[in-house]
Design a protein that fits this description.
Strand order of the largest sheet: 9-8-7-10-11-12
Largest sheet: 6 strands, parallel
Structural class: alpha/beta
Order of helices and strands: HEHEHEHEHHEHEEHEHEHEHEEHHH
Strand content: 5-15%
CATH superfamily of the largest domain: Glycogen Phosphorylase B
Number of strands: 12
Number of domains: 2
Distance between the termini: 20 Å
Shape: globular
Radius of gyration: 21 Å
Number of helices: 14
CATH architecture of the largest domain: 3-Layer(aba) Sandwich
CATH class of the largest domain: Alpha Beta
Helix content: 40-55%
Length: 349
């Protein structure tokens, strides 16, 4: 958003306002409140959200609208059909719970959503974050000319910098929303297994639950794990550079991602990473170079990978240096924002 404003655009953010409004407005960006709930199911209330979005688009009369995440993409594209802005960009930041869950509800809704998405996304340009999602969009019927692969949101290489590894018991950090689909359960099981084997390490969850997400881990469960002593739960932290400076290993055993910001920050901080061989995650980690890849939903393989790095400081340090190199060459915020601004200019031309 800041890069777009600096490029000469007038930028409006239409969002549910809870915090950070003043920070956004300090960048010269307009904030327009919209009460959108990701778990909203009341048809009348959801219709009112779309109607309000149509009203906002008519008032602002944007040249380009960009929708981020599944529900804003659906509602925003419908609103755009009524208001006809010159350009529509839909940012698929991962395919979300509907495409990652094995629940009965998700399996039933998935074919319907695929059909709806195929029609809606054909109305504009689509950004995806990894090659797997690119292929998914092609399978939905999108023409490659309407697709762009932009690898995440980038990372500030000045905010996240390498530090010397701290002495003491290795600290393994999992930074994420507390969702089952982030591999939280497998991480706890792996920690319990390693501690039972006598492996000297601390295992920390950093992040809050997300009540709007069906895969959210209940707070009661997190508190039980913390009391049992296998893991520490630090909750939400707004000082992630400091958290990562303490970490010896960063772990994200997610089932699927777009391109996880947490791993970009870990790479920029020069940390070895243990993650899953899944969409998005494997785009940041090269197995054996800057970290280790394990199968998703496999707590045993996860424990073995964590143990290998916990017990080998030299390997951790070598992988950490390679992580920083990858962040510098592929994921700097300057590189990624330049690609986004280039796309805006192209779709408006």
């Amino acid at each position: 958003m800041t890069a777009a404003r600096e490029a000469g655009y007038e930028v409006y953010v239409v969002t549910r306002v809870r915090r950070h409004r003043s920070i956004i407005e300090a960048r010269g960006i307009h904030v327009v409140p919209l009460e959108l709930s990701r778990r909203g199911r009341n048809p009348i209330a959801e219709f009112k959200v779309v109607a309000e979005l149509i009203r906002i688009y008519r008032a602002i009369r944007p040249d380009l609208v960009k929708h981020i995440a599944m529900k804003p993409i659906v509602y925003g594209t419908v609103a755009a059909l009524f208001t006809r802005p010159p350009a529509v960009v839909n940012y698929m930041a991962g395919l979300g719970w509907l495409f990652t869950s094995d629940s009965v509800k998700a399996r039933l809704l998935r074919p319907v959503m695929r059909a709806v998405l195929g029609r809606l996304l054909a109305k504009g340009h689509v950004i995806v974050e990894n090659p797997d999602d690119y292929r998914q969009m092609v399978d939905l019927g999108l023409a490659p000319a309407r697709l762009s692969l932009i690898r995440g949101a980038g990372v500030d290489l000045h905010e996240f910098e390498p530090t010397e590894e701290c002495d003491g018991i290795p600290l393994v950090v999992l930074p994420a929303r507390m969702l089952w689909t982030k591999g939280i359960g497998e991480f706890v099981t792996a920690a319990e297994r390693l501690l039972a084997e006598g492996v000297a390490a601390r295992f920390v969850l950093v992040g809050d639950p997300d009540p709007d997400n069906p895969a959210s881990v209940p707070i009661e469960k997190l508190e039980t794990w913390r009391r049992d002593g296998a893991i520490e739960w630090w909750g939400r932290r707004d000082d992630m550079p400091r958290v990562l400076a303490q970490a010896h290993i960063v772990c994200l055993p997610s089932y699927r991602e777009g391109l996880p910001k947490a791993l970009l920050e870990a790479a920029a901080a020069g940390k070895p990473i243990v993650t899953t061989d899944t969409s998005g995650c494997r785009d940041v980690v090269r197995h054996g170079e800057n970290g280790l890849l394990v199968p998703a939903a496999d707590a045993v393989a996860l424990a073995e990978a964590l143990k290998a790095l916990v017990e080998d400081r030299t390997r951790r340090e070598r992988m950490g240096r390679r992580s920083r190199e990858i962040a510098e060459t592929e994921f700097s915020s300057e590189k990624i924002t330049a690609e986004a601004i280039g796309l805006y200019k192209a779709v408006l031309s």
